[in-house]
Recover the amino acids of this structure.
C-alpha cells in the first residue's frame, strides 16, 4: 500500500473513530462524582491514586488521603504532600505493615480509628476527592465491616469522587464502585532481583 | 474460632509473611533505574505515571514528562505541573488525539519531533525519571520505529527510571521493560453513562 493510500485509509478510520468517540461522549450524560477501585496484584494501584490527587490539585480541588497500611519507610508521595500540599488532609494508620506488627488486636484498633477519619471525609461535601489507599486489606483481614465501608461509599456526597486501592476487594465493594480496574502483573523488576526504586516504587 | 486463637493464628501467619517479605528484599540486590510499562484497556495507566512523578518530586528528583497524545482539553496533572512544578520538563506533542487531526502526515511529523525530545531526556543522566505518556500508540500507528524506541530505553543512563503508558505495546517493548502491568477494565463509569470526571479522569 502506498503512503498516500495509507494516509487516505487512516483518515477514513480516524473519522469513524471520532464519530464513535463523539457518540460515546454524547451518551454519557450523568454528571457526578465517581467511585474508582484499583485492584489486582500488579504495580500501579497506589501510584494511580496519587496521580488522581495531582489531577484534582490541578483544579484546586479539596483532597483527602487516608492510608490504611504504611511501612516504616517514608514514601515519596507522602513527603511531597507534606512538604508541598499542606491543604491536603493526610491521615495515616501509622502501624506499619500488618506482617511487621504481628498484633491483630492492635491492628484492629488502628484500623477502626483510621476508618473513623475516612468516614468523616466521606460525609463532608467540601471534599472533591477522597483516596482510601490500601483499604481492601482491612476488609480481607476482617479489621473493618464490609457493609460499613460499602454504605459510607454509597452515601457520600454526590459530587465527591472516591478512589480505593489494594489487592482483592470483595464483590459488595466492587458492586458499589463505578469504575473497577484490575492491575495484572505481567512481570515485576523485584522478581528479577532489582531493588524497589525510590521515586518509582516508593 | 475464638478471638484469642484467631489472634495467635494471625501472629503465626504474619511471622511467616514477614520472613517471606524479608527474604525477597534480601534477594533483590541490583540497584538501578527501572523501566515500567503500564498497558491494558482499563483506567489508571497515565494517572499511575503521574503518581510516580509525585513520588519522585518528593525526593527532589529531576523529572521529565513527554506526552505523545493530548486532547484539546487541559488535564489536571498538566495544569498542576505547569503551575506548581516549573522544574519538571514537560513536552507535549500538542496535536490532539489522532482521531481529531485525521491527518497521518501531520501526526507523523509531530510524533517524530516529540520523540526527539524524548531521546534527549533518555540520554541525559541528570533525569532520574522520564515519563513517556501514551507512547505505545505511536508504535501501533507506525509513527515511530519500535527498534529506535527499544534501543533508547535500553541504552538510557543506568540510574534513570522510565515509565511508558498506553494500550498495547509490542513484545519487543515488553521485553526491554523490567516491570509490566496490564490494567484490565472490569467496569468503567463512562460505559454506564457517567461523564468523565474532572480531577479523576482528566
Amino acid at each position: 500500500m502506498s503512503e498516500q493510500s495509507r494516509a487516505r485509509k487512516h483518515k477514513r478510520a480516524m473519522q469513524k473513530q471520532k464519530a464513535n468517540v463523539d457518540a460515546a461522549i454524547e451518551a454519557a450524560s450523568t454528571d457526578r462524582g465517581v467511585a474508582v477501585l484499583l485492584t489486582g496484584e500488579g504495580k500501579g494501584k497506589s501510584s494511580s491514586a496519587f496521580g488522581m490527587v495531582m489531577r484534582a490539585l490541578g483544579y484546586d480541588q479539596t483532597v483527602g488521603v487516608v492510608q490504611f497500611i504504611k511501612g516504616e519507610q517514608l514514601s515519596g508521595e507522602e513527603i511531597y504532600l507534606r512538604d508541598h500540599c499542606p491543604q491536603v488532609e493526610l491521615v495515616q494508620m501509622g502501624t506499619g505493615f500488618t506482617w511487621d506488627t504481628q498484633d491483630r488486636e492492635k491492628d484492629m484498633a488502628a484500623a477502626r480509628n483510621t476508618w473513623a477519619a475516612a468516614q468523616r471525609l466521606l460525609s463532608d461535601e467540601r471534599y472533591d476527592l477522597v483516596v482510601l489507599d490500601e483499604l481492601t486489606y482491612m476488609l480481607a483481614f476482617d479489621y473493618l465491616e464490609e457493609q460499613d465501608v460499602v454504605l459510607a461509599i454509597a452515601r457520600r456526597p454526590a459530587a465527591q469522587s472516591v478512589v480505593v486501592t489494594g489487592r482483592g476487594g470483595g464483590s459488595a465493594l466492587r458492586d458499589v464502585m463505578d469504575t473497577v480496574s484490575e492491575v495484572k502483573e505481567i512481570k515485576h523488576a523485584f522478581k528479577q532481583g532489582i531493588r524497589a526504586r525510590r521515586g518509582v516504587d516508593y
Q: What stands out?
A: The first strand of chain B starts at residue 35 and ends at 39. The longest helix of chain B spans residues 3-27. The mean pLDDT of chain B is 92.
